[in-house]
Amino acid sequence: MADVAKLQVGDQKLELPIIEGSEQELGLDISTLRGQSGLVTLDEGYVNTGSTTSGITYLDGEKGILRYRGYPIEELAENCDFVEVTYLLIYGELPSEEQLKDFRNSIRSHTMLHEDMRSFYDGFPFDAHPMAILSSVVSALSTFYQDSLDPRDPEQVERTIFRLIAKLPTIAAYSYKKSIGQPFIYPQNDLSYCENFLQMMFAVPSEPFHVDPDFVKALNLLLIVHADHEQNCSTSTVRMVGSADANLYASISAGISALWGPLHGGANEACVSMLERIIEDGGDVTKYVNMAKDKTSGFRLMGFGHRVYKNFDPRAVIIKKACDTLLAKLDLQDPIFEVAQKLEEVALNDPYFVERKLYPNVDFYSGVIYRAIGIPVQMFTVLFAIGRLPGWVAHWKEMHESPTKRICRPRQIYTGELKRDFVPLEKRG
Ligand code: CMC
What is the reported pTM? Predict the structure, then answer.
């Protein structure tokens, strides 16, 4: 393969370098295009646009490959806990025993929220969406830690990373407790990350609480498979906001808002709502598959399709297996799981889905596990956010450590009115 591409614009001949990634991915470097020719590129939805080089996550959507820092997702899901994967994503290497111990301790020492933050929850309505609470409270953390907001100071950034990873489960669990009118449960630092989250969600002060190890295992796995996915919508948002040198709390809060959208992380909640609707409507999956194919219906199969995967989403394969195991172990027959499997079978045999290479994605089966654990549907995307946090942090940090960092500022092709004369108010028709 040549190392330059030639582009002819009218009489002008341009040469644009082709760059190669470590997995032989090729990209056209257009950074000199506008300077040389006055042209910009147009690529709505960034379908063909690489926004950065990155050494964090590799995915091959045709082959269904996903690796964090070179390690296959299947091996990490099998062998690690979420905090270990968090370390890997943020620092680039699997931690030694000593490093992991220190990292866990650093996180543990920051799990509590400032007492004044508890009063924020009094101001939210009881039925506020927990994603709105999560992004607001994360943004508000910056008002409590004004001494550590400088993105250029590595020590301040490190402290902020510990705080965010430690506090996100506490913020999330408080939003659930608020919604059901139960008292907030303080974090317990002798518990593991996932155990602690489950006790803050489900313990009550009047009774002893036992954490089910199967739930802890399932939660660890779900958080790991959600932990990073290269330049997705929320991660690109975190990078975009961070590129203006906004602090890490502000950048993560923006990422949480992007994730909330039903085309992105909000799809897990939307998927379970869809499956419930199918059951209530008599369980006819073919009717819903047909509706998804009808462009005038405005209906899509939630949890199906992906911008990058044109083959099985490897995360969906891991989650479906874990789902099977957990439900069998709990001796649970969840009608949602049964309908999901039927829907998958019908869709995967339908030419519409086959031709468009639409497969179940990470969100298709995750909701079934969350339900088995007892997590309410409104909290599903919050769980996605807790899982994705290390990825967001790793990308924000990678961007700030890059010597070529610039503010993200796309161009446009203007299609509006030409210059016209101002019309005074009294003369407007
Ligand atoms: N149901 C029915 N048709 C679909 C679906 C679906 N779920 N997804 C895509 N299509 C069709 C779409 O109508 C289009 O058809 P045509 O070529 O005839 O116009 C074709 O497939 C390509 O779709 P697209 O919208 O151009 O693809 P995209 O890459 O812009 O969108 C997506 C990707 C994930 C937003 C989309 O597949 C979708 O809306 N899926 C449902 C929502 C969902 O499950 N999102 C979670 C994504 S995974 C979690 C995460 O990382 O965020």
Answer: 0.94
Tens of pLDDT, residue by residue over 385-423, are: 999 999 999 999 999 999 999 999 999 999 999 999 999
Name the packing angle between helices 362-373 and 213-226 (round to 10°).
160
- Name the amino acid, one letter, at 36: Q
For ligand 1, the distance from its centroid to the CA atom of residue 134, given in whole angstroms, is: 26
Whether the CB of 357 sits within 6 Å of ligand 1? no
Q: Is 362 in the pocket of ligand 1 (CB under 6 A)?
A: yes
Question: Ligand 1 mean position to 310 CA, how many Å?
Answer: 11
CB count, 10 Å around CB of 183?
Answer: 11
**Do 172 and 197 meet the contact criterion of CB atoms below 8 Å apart?**
yes
Cα Rg, the chain, nearest whole Å: 24
**3-class state of residue 373 by DSSP:** helix
d(CA 63, CA 83): 28
Report the distance separating Cα 260 and Cα 241, nearest Å: 17
Our mutation pick for probing the ligand 1 site, out of 236, 259, 263, 274, counting the most ligand atoms within 8 A of Cβ, is 263
SS3 of residue 57 by DSSP: strand
Q: What is the pLDDT of residues 29-83, one digit of tens each?
A: 999 999 999 999 999 999 999 999 999 999 999 999 999 999 999 999 999 999 9
Q: Considering only CA atoms, which residue is closest to atom 4 of ligand 1? A: 300
Q: How far is the CA of 76 from the centre of ligand 1 (A)?
A: 28
Instruction: Label residues 92-107 b or e (16+ Cβ within 10 Å = b).
Output: eebbeeeebeebbebb
Closest ligand 1 atom to Cα of 234: 52
Read off φ and ψ for residue 82, nearest 5 degrees: -60, -35
In the block, which residue shows the tokens 């905090």? 83
Tokens of 303: 């949890």
